[in-house]
Design brief:
single chain; mainly beta; 5-stranded antiparallel sheet; 5 strands; about 10% helix; about 35% strand
Length: about 80
Amino acid sequence: GVVEAVNDNDVTIAIPTGFDTNYDLSRPGDSGALWLTRDTFQPVALHIRERPGATKKCSARRIIPSLTALNLNVVSGP
């Protein structure tokens, strides 16, 4: 997916340009998954759900406020 919009802590993820419009960006059970950057695999957002209707977009929350709310930190490898 690609970040389409950020509004406060809400993030909208959309299907990347060039993908089939019927591509499943989100499936049941994906809630709580991390959205990562493609190049560095850094967490960007916490997946919430696919948006209702035929939008084929997902709702997520920015990662830092999500981690703070859960009292968690990102730890990088060696």
